[in-house]
Task: structure prediction
Amino acid sequence: METRVAVIGIIVEDESSVDKLNDILHEYGRCIIGRMGIPHRAKGINVISIAVDAPQDKIAALSGKIGNLPGVSAKTAYSNFITEE
Result:
């Protein structure tokens, strides 16, 4: 199975979606290498970056689930580094 390294950038504008976001991240926890969250208090938003190592379809599914949450935006940047697991 081929895996890729990617970064998912997340902007949370609706705080009521945070619990569901955390549930989704927990569901995909085995794929997550690291996570960094920065609250932007002046704007009332949160900026989160998630580093993942997983098959491309799993990364796309994770990003899609996150992006479908109300008030949450997600974009993914894929590396060209592909490994066989």
Observations:
- Strands lie at 2-12, 32-40, 45-54, 72-84.
- The chain has two helices and four strands.
- Helices lie at 18-27, 56-67.
- The mean pLDDT is 97.
